[in-house]
Amino acid sequence: xxxxxxxxxxxxxxxxxxxxxxxxxxxxxxxxxxxxxxxxxxxxxxxxxxxxxxxxxxxxxxxxxxxxxxxxxxxxxxxxxxxxxxxxxxxxxxxxxxxxxxxxxxxxxxxxxxxxxxxxxxxxxxxxxxxxxxxxxxxxxxxxxxxxxxxxxxxxxxxxxxxxxxxxxxxxxxxxxxxxxxxxxxxxxxxxxxxxxxxxxxxxxxxxxxxxxxxxxxxxxxxxxx
Length: 226
Fold this sequence. Notes:
Blueprint: H1 2-9, H2 11-36, H3 43-54, H4 57-88, H5 103-106, H6 108-127, H7 147-154, H8 158-185, H9 194-220
């Protein structure tokens, strides 16, 4: 047990746990986006989907606590590894060579911070209804919480739309590098599938960002109406 604990406390072990927690969070992000795409099917579909989730409180809160644990562990490990790297080389390089590193990999800390701030805003905005409580308790014709109406109301505001689009930029940059590097950290990259693994991160990022942006702009441009 002690040997296993020491392994996970090492830089290699921490990176492996960070990769696993990151992939878990990515899986949630993909399914969350797919679920929200039901906004294009109308209020009935999205509100029934939200009601279905709320009708299983044990499963819902287990998932929420699990996601919170994954996020806290992932962020904590990222900070610890960053501090270790800084202590190992407290003096910055005089000249930076970026021939191999992509823009997404060089901005992981920045995109990660943007992502954390965006998630906090999103939770306070649409989940908790703290930022905009005007439609928090509204019900639809079937007696379900009008999640559809809340989302449509939110993305009619240009300021909110701009904030969410900036959030998508953070998500795209972070996922683009994180997915591929997680596969590499876990030793899942093989020569025969090298192109697939390199393309996995950008592909996942593109799908998630396009799906979320379609929802935001679809409402803002009036394609989806309340």
